Amino acid sequence: MASLASFFLDFTYVMNAQLRLLGKAIAPLSVRLRGRVRLSGSGKIVLGEGVSLNGTVVPIELITYETGSIEIGAHTFVNYGSSIAARTSVKIGSYCHLGHYMFVMDNNQHDVVRHWELPPSEPVVIEDNVWIGSKVIILPGVRIGNNAVIGAGSVVTKDIPARCVAAGNPARVLRHLTDLD
Fold first, then answer.
1. Would strands 69-72 and 44-47 be described as parallel, antiparallel, or unpaired?
2. pLDDT digits (tens, 9 = 90+) for 66-99
3. What CATH architecture does domain 2-176 belong to?
4. CA atoms within 13 A on the CB side of 88
5. SS3 letters for 106-175?
6. What is the distance between the alpha carbons of residues 27 and 7, in angstroms, rounded to a whole number?
7. Which residue, among 58, 46, 51, 120, has the nearest Cα to 87 in the 3D structure?
8. Taking the chain, what is the end-to-end CA distance rounded to the nearest angstrom?
């Protein structure tokens, strides 16, 4: 009986994703959405197989400007309150875990000196098997390597190599992970 209830609950999440993402994102039937997601802009959003979105407490925001593209790889989990904004490109790999209230952007939205000017966008790449803690901010032009871990509350301003633990403001590498970890 429990497995039947589990099946219907899972089916509900699949249908919720299909209904809320319909016509706004490319999403295979295996994408699951608990709660809500806000999609805005006219760019491209592509979700991989088995992506899981948890927008229960606060909706997840996916914002793509006209030439922007957000790609989320297979079996990646995005927690509530997260916001991903792309003027050009944000790519998130497969099997990633993104903590709640995480923020990724490929453009700072205004120049530091000339506030009225839009600076050039720099693509953001988060490779496979990356874990990102709660309330992490990832700024334009950053690449986070495979199997990296970003500590909660960090501000990632530059590239983080693969198999590292990084944290802080600005985030810095605290240690390298070995095969024994």
1. parallel
2. 999 999 999 999 999 999 999 999 999 999 999 9
3. 3 Solenoid (2.160)
4. 14
5. CCCCCCCCCCCCCCCCCCEEECCCCEECCCCEECCCCEECCCCEECCCCEECCCECCCEEEEECCEEEEE
6. 20
7. 120
8. 39
Provide the annotated active-site residues: 110
* Dihedral (Cα; 157, 160, 166, 168), 10-degree rounding: -10
3-state helix, strand, coil in the chain (%, to 5): 10, 40, 50
List the chain residues with pLDDT less than 70: 1-2, 8-9, 110-115, 180-181
pLDDT score for 173: 97
Domain layout of the chain by residue ranges: 2-176
- Model pLDDT, residue 120: 86
Sign (positive/negative) of CA torsion 154, 106, 175, 164? positive
Q: At residue 6, what are phi and psi to the nearest 5 degrees? A: -60, -40
> Token pair of 21, please?
């993402």
